[in-house]
Amino acid sequence: MDKDRLQDELRIFRDRNFLRQKLRSSLMVYVLLALSYLLIVILFAVSLSRVSMLSSQLNEVRNELKRNNSSKDFKLFPCGPEAREWEYFGGKCYYFSLRQTSWQRAKVLCGTEHSRLAIINSRAKQNFIMYRTRNQRFWIGLSDQNSEGVWKWIDGSDSTPGFTYWKEGEPNDSDHNEDCAHVWTYGEWNDVHCTYECYYICEKPAPP
Ligand SMILES: [Ca+2]
Ligand SMILES: [Ca+2]
């Protein structure tokens, strides 16, 4: 009887020991799993922060490149890289047409480009235009269509008190029919009939 009891107790002890060992090994597995999970989370967080750091650095480089390019663009094309046919002078942009047309049509064509026929109100601007037009005839924004002999710029201002560069003997209103002005040889101004066809100069403010 005592022997049986002893064997039972021994068996129970063994079972308990076995269970304890099993529990311990399962616990170890769970701890290891938890540690690996933690490690994965840490690695993920670290790589995420590195990726965001890299992308912010990349953005900075991109912005710097953009800034450099836009300042280079401004130096090369102050009137805008999309408007390379416009020439910059003194804070404004000028277009020298390649086609000849009447004064009225030239006025409309400048308008479609958000500009107007050129106003020459200084010697510096006259020099620029003179150099650029090289004895070719180009319409400017000056006419006496509203009142004979009263020459007004296209912005409504009176030309007489300001800078003028009329050719000697001009404006002569030849045949009583010359109401529009163009630059002529040596850049001097001449009045001619408005349906005459010549090149034209448009002017607009330079982009900010
Ligand atoms: Ca006239
Ligand atoms: Ca004339």
From TrEMBL:
Top-rank lineage group of the source organism: Eukaryota
Keywords of this entry: Disulfide bond, Lectin, Membrane, Transmembrane, Transmembrane helix
UniProt cross-references to CDD domains, sorted A to Z: CLECT_DC-SIGN_like (cd03590)
UniProt cross-references to SUPFAM superfamilies, sorted A to Z: C-type lectin-like (SSF56436)
Molecular functions (GO terms): carbohydrate binding
Pfam families from the UniProt entry: Lectin_C
Domain C-type lectin: 89-203
InterPro entries linked to this entry: C-type_lectin-like, C-type_lectin-like/link_sf, C-type_lectin/snaclec_domain, C-type_lectin_CS, CD209-like_CTLD, CTDL_fold
Membrane-spanning residues: 27-48
Protein name: C-type lectin domain-containing protein
Species this protein is from: Chelydra serpentina (Snapping turtle)
